[in-house]
């Protein structure tokens, strides 16, 4: 069932091959030395099958496009601009609404669960037989998680995880199959509700970013292929350039809704996606973020019966801190390394949907059991505060008027636990409680990330960090003579949370802003930034960021922002792919069909030459549309009334152009000619062969290209640089390294 | 004295011509219709004299450069990266320190002044003869302003104004003469202290941005030409690319210090400067901003005897709002229009330094007189609060225990007045007081901006906006039946301030973030953004932003972020400059000297061809260094021991390359040949002639180019696109407009 989709099948196959190669080599050799082309010949067959399409961020400025643009009046452009703003507003609104639904659903489900379990525990604490409570808790958790895992594993595997790696890839310019579909969104939302309510060590923040992106992709296209509904609006935006811009806005709106951090959202989008700073686009992104936070706030304030009180933005906010320490990303690196091996294990052995569901249920049950055991054996009793700040205070074996401190950490949604760790007064936790909690939660979170459920890693990271940060603060207060000055464990918890999160995900700039916005206090900016930088530097020394690991494991041709520093000795000649399949300006249909059908090359862009000098570039998708509409020179002559092909025909086919196999071309038609002049991009970007790699990289990245033609001094095509040619160079510990990637 | 600098002289001459043309036409025709080339033939001679150099953001990747890069080890790049971070830290620290000095100096000087005047007023209120107080006040003001105006007018005219237009131009890629020199910084700092202490309607925030930029330019180059001191460090950074990056960081640090808004600073720099989003650069900019805020805070907290209390960042902070209205930018547009005509008047008539100083003193005296009159005739007495929140409460003719409300607005530094308007409880001001204050302050601020003193327009704009915003709030509360809900005039003051500032300067994104960070409350984000957007839209309908007006009046070839929407019908062929002066790969020295000496063309970049196809691009500055070192083929043969030219020689000459006239080339040498192969950039970016203007624009802007070669299908050079070719197209009210600009 899961393999009915061919792309996915190929993708899985490819990942298996790659992992096989990774596992067959000792980790030492794969990290330390140049991986040359020849040494991985065995995997080459495999990576050729694997198809990750790239996005075309560069407009194909062919005659049709230019004619349309020239026909359009000044007012027309104004209208387009206004619709862009309207779409961004809609994206923000819908994203905020989704966040609101998730929040309310999780609150209610988790509240119900904890209420039932608490009642049960209180009942059995006196009469004995707490094992029944344990079973109840474990069964409830597993049931929730089962639902979440089943829908993800059987209906839409693309909705697994936080979705942030996928969105990162999309914004980077790589099309991940099925990532921005409506079905993915629905499964994602239901899945995240189930997994958080099921008590897994996960957060609901990461999936918001994915949800925002899906909303954006859907709204901006004015149609849904899943629902087979076309509203016939926003047709102008049906191309990669515009769609990617809106998806950036959606991701930003997601961050904004998740953390109440509109500026952080904008920076996240820019950090991950935008290559060329576009001022109007950034404003629109910011607008979407603002609307999203505002919507979430507004509806939550109504839900909480305090309409108009907009002071607590975001799904999680850390509360306000009323006002240092340099900690490191070692734990983050450890987390990532463990998760790396776990992921490889999973890819190898746990790939059947049934197994995936069972693993998820197992984790849920283990989480409940471990939590219960920790609470059961803990003897850290704290007096109940006068304001009853705990949500579900478990008395258990404590004296009357006291509650079990371990339970505030375990018997709660992770968001609330984080807030308790930040804000509970000094002395609320024993050092022993905190150490045990950190240790167990660390392993639980590590095991949980990568399960086939929709879930984020932000909150668990924050929670682990907050726990050991607070522990550190308590210890520091104990050993310093003038303990009172340093005795603000909540601050250490915040710094620890920042360090842990930074060590795991490694997004410095946007993360700083997100943290600052979530704490609502700019004075923490500098320490948070220093902590994050330290965590990044220390973590990078050992292993990459979690998202990057997962991206790399999928062998996505991910382009970083700059070429490796020591790559000036490489030139376009060495980097480019050659020879290149070129077409003549007027080409035989048979030739075109043969080239497109050739699965061994599977190119997407073809330079057009006359007679040898380059005069244009045409895309596979354009050729397919031309073949489908049989735009042949001979037919045009015979049937004069034939409708001229419009830009609309290309837009209607976007984004799922049919494969070449589905287009029937008869033997007669194969002898016809096609005139590409009108449809090719007459001014593709070109570089000379001697151009250095950083220069090629800069041009490619700044303009979001998909194909860059390399020419010699007479403008003859000598090669083609694509994403995979650039993505395979990266800076390792010992200088430039080259690796093999999936074909673009 | 002022005209000893030739560039400045030319610049003034050019502006006069331009203004003459502007004034000779009726404003209607110059706004409403296409200004074609022919209609301004009269001014053409003039604009040819005017020289604004562009910055080269594109590295010239010649053989020397590539060799150096290839020689450099991985560790070398690490060291460079670390020094970049160190420099950014230094920039932040020094900028914060300067902000701190300015703040303390202004506080003390203004405090002294107000103390003296207050004593005097109190003395004469009883015995009569308040005119003596008036004279004292006016004389004190004029004296301060005179000092400020004299140093600016006579020593460094480049330090006049806020410096923000100049920094905008610099970040945009236009080299404004003398803008990042040490002397400018010193004059700027002293000037701003004097003008704020002198009671002008100005702020000290704008000049901080300029100061930060100068600090950055100085620190990053590791030498000062003014002090004739070369520390022999950071030599690698002596080129336009690196220097501009650091100047971005400096500007961000300036914003950050001025408003306590590090994120706002980063966004300001990105909005104005960065074209290509560079992640590492952005982190460094953010780091500089953080350090800057932190430094300012730290030293101010020590100064205020509260060391470690870092809760009030920035030179101005609005205080914290405890948690709508859509207002418009009409007043902003009016301000800009008035200031536009005033500036033209000033450029025409007030250009002698003596006159400028006298005008500044006149404004100072008038400001004092008007303020005094307003206070004198006001009868808005308010009871003194228990906590004595006013800094200099003037009793004047009020009853005991009361103070004059008008005086809180006028008898204070503008920063404090803004805060009073935001935070004083409802009822602190009469509507009449506010209207009178708004009206007079509006005209005073408008008159003041553009005086030959260093001063910013942020605070006066905020003050005007706050006053009428509060007025609006009071009126709204009066007319609504349930007045109490809306009766928070401070919020209206904030919105009014945002609207007024937005209407005047029109920086939406960074301004929103700055305002949000300065208020310290993210819930105001959405209303502030909406208000700013409205103000921008309304304001843009009437007239451009203040900074843009001033940039345009100086006829700077400023590139906006995108090509005008309706410019798809233009191609590179129509836009480019042709014919182009090309050199051969091995060229006669005489030819080169003749071309460089030709003042009528004055090109800066020359394509190198072999025999007709393009094979490189060489810059004027490079040729000058080659000529200076007499790198001739014949000499190399005869003197084999001659030192090979190094990249260091080019760096030492940077940024003030000698003019061609100062290089003596004998008649014999003129017959020698020069081999340009090693020094030219062998892979300049090229475009075909048919490329549309938006495509050319995008390439040019994204990569920060200075020259873009236009080639035909055989790679022959047919034209050269420079900044001025692109900057002359802009979108007017009725579609595309073309205008004549100064030659780049």
What can you tell me about this protein's structure?
- By secondary structure, chain A is mainly alpha-helical.
- The first copy, chain A, folds into 4 domains: 2-52, no CATH class; 74-303, Clc chloride channel (Orthogonal Bundle); 330-553, Clc chloride channel (Orthogonal Bundle), CATH 1.10.3080.10; 572-727, Roll (CBS-domain).
- Helix content of chain A is 58%, strand content 7%.
- A 3-stranded mixed beta sheet of chain A has the order 7-9-10.
- In chain A, helix 30 (693-703) links the parallel strand 12 and strand 13.
- In chain A, helix 13 packs parallel to helix 17 (431-448).
- The longest helix of chain A has 54 residues, at 74-127.
- The first copy, chain A, is elongated.
- Chain A starts with 5 loop residues before the first helix and ends in a 6-residue tail after the last strand.
- At the A-B interface, helix 4, helix 11, helix 12, helix 21 and helix 22 of A face helix 4, helix 5, helix 11, helix 12 and helix 21 of B.
- Chains A, B: This is Chloride channel protein.
- Chains A, B: It holds the Pfam family CBS.
């Amino acid at each position: 069932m899961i393999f009915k989709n061919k792309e996915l099948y190929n993708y899985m196959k490819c990942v298996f091959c790659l992992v096989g190669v990774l596992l067959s080599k000792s980790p030492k050799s794969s990290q330390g030395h140049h991986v040359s082309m020849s040494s991985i010949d065995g995997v080459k067959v495999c990576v050729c099958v694997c198809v990750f399409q790239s996005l075309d961020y560069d407009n194909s400025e062919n005659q049709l496009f230019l004619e349309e643009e020239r026909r359009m009046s000044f007012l027309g452009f104004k209208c387009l601009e206004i619709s862009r703003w309207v779409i961004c507003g809609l994206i923000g609104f819908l994203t905020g609404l989704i966040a609101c639904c998730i929040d309310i659903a999780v609150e209610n489900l988790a509240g119900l669960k904890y209420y039932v379990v608490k009642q049960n525990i209180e009942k059995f604490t006196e009469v004995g037989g707490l094992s029944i409570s344990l079973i109840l808790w474990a069964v409830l958790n597993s049931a929730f998680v089962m639902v979440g895992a089943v829908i993800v594993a059987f209906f839409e595997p693309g909705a697994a995880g936080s979705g942030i790696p996928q969105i990162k890839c999309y914004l980077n310019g790589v099309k991940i199959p099925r990532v921005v579909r409506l079905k993915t969104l629905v499964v994602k939302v239901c899945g995240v509700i189930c997994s958080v309510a099921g008590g897994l060590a996960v957060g609901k923040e990461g999936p918001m970013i994915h949800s925002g992106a899906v909303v954006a992709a859907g709204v901006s296209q004015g149609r849904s292929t899943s629902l087979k509904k076309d509203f016939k609006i926003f047709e102008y935006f049906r191309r990669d350039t515009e769609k990617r811009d809106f998806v950036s806005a959606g991701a930003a709106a997601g961050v904004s809704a998740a953390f109440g951090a509109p500026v952080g959202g904008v920076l996240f989008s820019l950090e991950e996606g935008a290559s060329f700073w576009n001022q109007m686009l950034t404003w629109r992104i910011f607008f979407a973020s603002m609307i999203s936070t505002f919507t979430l706030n507004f509806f939550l304030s109504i839900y909480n019966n305090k309409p108009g009180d907009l002071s607590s933005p975001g799904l999680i906010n850390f509360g306000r801190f009323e006002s240092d320490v340099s900690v490191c990303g070692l734990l983050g690196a450890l987390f990532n390394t463990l998760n790396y091996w776990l992921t490889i294990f999973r890819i190898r052995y746990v790939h059947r949907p049934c197994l995936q569901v069972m693993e998820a249920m197992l984790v849920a049950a283990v989480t409940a059991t471990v939590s219960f055991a920790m609470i059961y054996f803990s003897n850290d009793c704290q007096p109940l505060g006068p304001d009853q700040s705990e949500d579900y205070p478990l008395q258990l074996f404590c004296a009357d008027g006291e509650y079990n401190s371990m339970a505030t950490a375990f018997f709660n949604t992770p968001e609330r636990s984080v807030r308790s760790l930040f804000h509970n007064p000094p002395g609320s936790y024993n050092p022993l409680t905190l150490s045990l909690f950190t240790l167990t939660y660390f392993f639980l979170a590590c095991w949980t990330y990568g399960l086939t459920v929709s879930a984020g890693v932000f909150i668990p990271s924050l929670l682990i960090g907050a726990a050991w940060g607070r522990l550190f603060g308590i210890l520091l207060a104990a050993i310093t003579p003038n303990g009172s000055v340093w005795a603000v464990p909540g601050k250490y918890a915040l710094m620890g949370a920042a360090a842990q999160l930074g060590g795991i995900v490694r997004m410095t700039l946007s993360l700083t802003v997100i943290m600052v916005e979530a704490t609502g206090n700019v004075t923490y900016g500098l320490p948070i930034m220093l902590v994050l930088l330290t965590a990044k530097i220390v973590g990078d020394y050992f292993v990459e960021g979690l998202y990057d690991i997962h991206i790399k494991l999928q062998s996505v041709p991910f382009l970083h922002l700059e070429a490796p520093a020591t790559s000036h000795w490489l030139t376009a000649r060495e980097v480019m792919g050659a020879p290149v399949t070129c077409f003549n300006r007027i080409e035989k249909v048979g030739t075109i069909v043969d080239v497109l059908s050739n699965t061994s090359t599977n190119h997407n862009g073809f330079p057009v030459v006359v007679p040898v000098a380059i005069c244009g570039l045409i895309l596979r998708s354009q050729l397919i549309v031309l073949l489908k509409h049989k735009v042949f020179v001979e037919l045009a002559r015979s049937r004069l009334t034939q409708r001229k092909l419009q830009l609309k025909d290309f837009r209607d086919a976007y984004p799922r152009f049919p494969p070449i196999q589905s287009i029937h071309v008869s033997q007669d038609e194969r002898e016809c000619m096609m005139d590409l002049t009108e449809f090719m991009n007459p001014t593709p970007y070109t570089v000379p062969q001697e151009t250095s790699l950083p220069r090629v990289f800069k041009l490619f990245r700044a303009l979001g290209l998909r194909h860059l033609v390399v020419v010699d001094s007479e403008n003859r095509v000598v090669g083609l640089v694509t994403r995979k040619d650039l993505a395979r160079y990266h800076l390792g510990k010992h200088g430039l390294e080259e690796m093999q990637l999936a074909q673009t």
